[in-house]
Specification:
There is one protein chain. The chain is mainly alpha-helical. It contains 21 helices and 13 strands. The strands form 5 sheets. A 3-stranded mixed beta sheet has the order 1-7-8. Strand 10, helix 8 and strand 11 form a beta-alpha-beta unit. It starts with a strand and ends with a helix.
Length: 505
């Protein structure tokens, strides 16, 4: 059977182009599956078509509604909406009706082979160096034998008859693909429990839902041959097929958990933004012709063409994703980032859920966001940067901070710094820790510098001890920002703690 480009192009597609995304709820939304969803969404929207979300949950042993809910939640988070929704488990009668039609037309037959026999057959063929497949034992059973087996209540499957003939189809990404009938044996359409096999359910659904384009991963190419035969058997022309390359690690291996996150939920939990994830995923096997790298999926709609998808494997580069995510973080307003970062502070126990109502604490969150927004690549890093600034004390001093603090001039600097902090606090003339801004911090630092002029202490010998006394580190946001975040009272506590540390060390 030849399904050439010319034959496919004769297929009447007067209707609106129809795409489908069909995940199996047997796990979370994998990054590769999410890219498939995105490409289908882009293709449907760029062609003014419709997108069908179809949950393929006929694998009753592995499917779980919690994974379906998770997949749907992740798709919504990515901003990938759909126009129609179906669930295969609610369509069993439709598959059985089509299977009965094939039986009546002699295109399928009942197979009574037990799982044990099929397992033994597979082992035998492999031991002989042959490709495993069904040996058609039940294909020509007499009507009497079939009746006898049914009377004895023997379990059966419905197998599709694969006839001779080469299969050739034109892939919109890969060009002509050819299959020999020898690699495809009679295969199961309906399993012994009455549920459809993957390939049979897909063909019935794609036909019934009038899908015009099937855009999916290259791991489905071998399924396409079987599906083309099934489309012919039910009297339908196949849709257009396009198979996207796999996403691989930098070393060429398959993307797997041992290298890090592989599901959208995991990326969400790490603090990636949906806009950044979509932006990056869209560039795995596709690039806009204008060469742009930072764009929203809505901008990509007008640029996306299936013919521009590369057939080369896509390499997942975490550094590139982090770079893109950092750009989107910096595009956010401070208020937006406060809302986005707060759950991560709560999750890491930096603040409590009830603190969201505390104006003083949320003001500190806001100041921290402003101080660290240029540093963080993912939102999950924010508590690591800001967490210590929510404490009353410094937990430890870095090796570099320790070396700076133990310089002969550092104690002098900290004594003057402490005096300036105290006099500044007094100037507010109230017991409550006043809210101060960076300008107050700048004036404090300048005043300490003036105090130490006669000692000729300046540069890093002036600024580093002050920073180390407040954070235990020698690097970080500008010192005035740190002072504004901590507040005068906490700064005084920390400098006193540092002076005591120096006395004891």
């Amino acid at each position: 059977m030849v399904i050439s480009k010319e034959i496919q192009e004769k297929k009447e597609v007067k209707m609106v182009p129809r795409f489908r995304f069909a995940p199996s709820p047997t796990g979370g939304l994998h990054i590769g599956t999410a890219r498939t969803a995105l490409f289908n969404w882009l293709a449907a929207r760029s062609m003014n078509g419709r997108l069908v979300l179809r949950i393929e949950d006929t694998d009753t042993k592995r499917s779980d509604r919690k994974y379906e809910d998770s997949i749907i939640d992740d798709l919504k988070w990515l901003g990938l909406g759909w126009d129609e929704f179906y669930r295969q488990s609610e369509r069993i009668e439709i598959y059985q009706k089509f299977a009965n039609k094939l039986l009546n037309e002699g295109k399928a037959y009942l197979c009574f082979c037990t799982p044990e026999r099929l397992s033994d057959l597979r082992r035998k063929l492999l031991s002989e160096g042959k490709m495993p497949g069904y040996d058609n034992k039940c294909r020509n059973l007499s009507a009497e034998d079939v009746e006898k087996n049914l009377r004895e209540s023997k379990k059966f499957t419905i197998r599709f008859k694969v006839e001779d003939g080469e299969i050739l189809f034109n892939d919109l990404v890969r060009g002509d693909i050819k299959f020999s009938p020898k690699v495809i044996r009679d295969f199961i359409a309906i399993k012994s429990d009455g549920t459809p096999s993957y390939n049979f359910a897909v063909v019935v659904d794609d036909s019934e839902m009038e899908i015009t384009h099937v855009l999916r991963g290259e791991d489905h190419i071998t399924n396409t041959a079987k599906q083309i035969l099934l489309f012919e058997s039910i009297g339908q022309k196949p849709p257009f097929f396009a198979h996207i390359s796999m996403i691989l690690e930098k070393d060429g291996s398959k993307l797997s958990k041992r290298y890090g996150a592989t599901t959208i939920t995991q990326f969400r939990e790490m603090g990636y933004l949906s806009e950044a994830v979509c932006n990056y995923l869209s560039m795995l096997s596709w690039h806009p012709r204008d060469g742009e790298e930072i764009f929203s999926i809505y901008d990509a709609v007008s640029k996306f063409k299936i013919s521009d998808i590369s057939k080369s494997p896509a390499i997942f580069d975490t550094d590139k994703l982090n770079w893109i995510n950092g750009i989107y973080i910096r595009k956010k307003t401070v208020d937006e980032l406060v809302d986005l970062c707060t759950p991560f502070l709560i999750g890491k126990k930096v603040i409590e859920e009830s603190d969201v109502e505390n104006e003083e604490i949320m003001l500190k969150v806001r100041k921290c966001v402003d101080a660290f927004r240029d540093k963080i690549k993912v939102l999950g890093e924010f508590p690591d940067y800001a967490g210590d600034l929510f404490k009353d004390r410094i937990n430890n001093y870095s090796k570099e901070a320790d070396e700076i603090l133990k310089l002969k001039t550092s104690s002098n600097v900290l004594q003057f710094f402490l005096e300036e902090l105290g006099s500044t606090l007094k100037s507010y003339n109230n017991k409550k820790d006043p809210d101060i801004d960076e300008e107050v911090g700048r004036k404090l630092i300048k005043a300490v510098g003036e105090d130490l002029k006669e000692y000729k202490i300046k540069g890093k010998f002036l600024y580093m001890p002050m920073r180390a006394s407040l954070t235990g580190m020698t690097h970080g946001p500008e010192l005035p920002k740190i002072i504004a975040i901590l507040g005068l009272k906490n700064c005084i506590k920390r400098v006193n703690q540092t002076l005591k540390y120096l006395e004891n060390n």
